[in-house]
Amino acid sequence: MRAFYAEGKTARPLLINIISACTIIALGFILIFSFDNIPVFRFFIEDLLRVSGQTGTNALMLALAYSIGVILNTVLHWVTFEKAYKGFSKPVLETLFHSFSAAVISGFIAFMGLRIFALVFPLEKVWGIFMQGFCSGILGLIIGVCVLILLDNKELKEVWNTLHQKIWKVKVPPAEVDHL
User: Fold this and answer.
1) Blockwise average pLDDT, block size 10, the chain, 180 residues
2) Which of 49, 64, 130, 174 is the most exposed place for a label (fewest CB within 10 A)?
3) Cα–Cα distances in Å, from 81 out to 14, 40, 74, 161?
4) What does the domain layout of the chain look like in residue ranges?
């Protein structure tokens, strides 16, 4: 939206936002009506979200309608932006793939680390639970960085170069010495 606004093209984002807002409102009514009048749909949603037997669960349909509307808004903006600025999607999707891959793999490794470190640390003590989570988290972070390195992630390289240049400076300039 900001790119369109910067060019003075405010009609496209406004139209997309109006369409999305109307979709959210319409879906709110449709989903609440369906939730109240179609028992199979209600039971499915309540079981899926594990809220069976709770009162006021039809309010969840408003959140579902909002989520669907925001996803529609994102897709419409993305498609419109890609048409206006060719080649926008490729680097974004590449970064998305790298981030998603690293997150899934490191999350799985951290979860498995919880099981392994449960054998090492006593879970009856607070420090044991802390160490189990801490070690699993560190293991997940290390694996996540390794996955990004294997995928040759550009953003990770930029972060490393920035840290290396700004924090761990390679060359320290010599102190000036005044000669007598």
Assistant:
1) 82 92 97 95 93 90 96 93 87 92 96 91 88 94 95 91 75 64
2) 174
3) 13, 39, 10, 31
4) 2-84, 89-166
